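call fold target=FAD-binding domain-containing protein
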Amino acid sequence: MGRTRQHEHALVIGAGIAGLLTARVLGPNFTTVTVLERDRLPARPSPRPGVPQGRHAHALQAGGLLTLERLLPGIGDDLRAAGAPPVDFCAQGQLHLPYGTPPPRTSGILIQPVSRPLLEAVIRERVLAADARIRIEEGVTVTGLTTERYRYQHRVTGVHLIRGRNPGAVRHLSATLVVDTSGRTSHLPDWLAALGLPRPAETVVDAHVGYATRAYRLPVGQAPDWSAVFQPPYAPHSPHGCFVIRVENDQLIVTLQGVGGHHPPTDPAGFDAFTATLTGDLHKVLANLEPLGPPVRYARTAGRRLHYHRLRLWPECLLALGDAVCAFNPVYAQGMTVAAQQALTLGELLSDRPQDLDGLAPSFQRRAARITTWPWHMSTLPDLHWQPEPPRSLPHRTAHWYLDQWQRLVPQDPRMFQDIARVSNMLASPLLLAHPRHLIRVCRSAARRKPQRRSQP
């Protein structure tokens, strides 16, 4: 990332994790990188309005942690110094599946439990300290794009924005490149339509998952023997689940999950009663801990994928990544990892074309879409079975059957536990689950359980 800059001004919309990592890879390639953020950013790590899910449990997958280290070398040490060390997914995490819980085993698959405010604050500090060309402009809202005609299509030349809450004070900010990283609240489809361009096709999968989260203080000597608990809801076995992590400042963040009409309550008594329905010792652990506040709710969890890569009239000098392109059901903790991988890919593309941005936009959107493909299918496969009418196609039914067989075998098979941990942490392709060793194991197990037909008398 240390090349001589070649271009003038890049604008990044949104100062969340995707926006900060995007600014990091743009910095060496532009004279100035301006990150436009609607919120006023807190001086110390704390939740902010623009990240409504910020109070809930977060963990960076192992693949995301490795990518983050490539973008910001040494950031793992910074998080450790802030009280948030990485943990071994298989050894220090409990994975409760419908058919059992695998025993702990050392795997070397390191995940990063951390509060979202601390992770964002550490990344922001590192990005701004690493490159003086990057600056953040707070308290501004982007309202649209400016363009010019260029080779039979549009080229984005900047944005319209307002400062504060004054809609009459619209100003224009010019740029050589504009990147939308504004997340689930992105208005990019509307901005394209305002320019007379087509809206992207959109795929939405909504399992109607609702969260309730409460933080607890962990006194010295009372910490459980695990650092994280994962129990995703799984159709049709149980609509209840949880994601629990130990984070900095001796806190335990407990995020309960419920599907459909089973959203966890936000009153303390109802919250406690919900924990008693879960597998493991969480209910007993919480009985001895001091809550740090009331439970808080979050229910905007639908998976939403915008197919920008299919648009034939995609404007030059406009990019979109992170949740602005593909927002996952947060149950699966994929969003931050995907955003980091997309930012890294953008940096690699810019290195391949040091003097020319022509063609960068469509090329990047195709690569960004490929990065989202497997995570999207892995998360929507179980979510689709919470729909009133689950898909009935043979490929989907076969995939769901195969995943169910895995759920049965993982608690008793250390190799399968290791491999599904690698896949779920985006260290390996889901094709690993179809390794011949696993195919044979699944087929043999299924054959043994298949009921025998009675012979006719």
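return ok
The domain at 209-298 is CATH 3.30.70 (Alpha-Beta Plaits). Confidence is low (pLDDT under 50) at residues 452-457.
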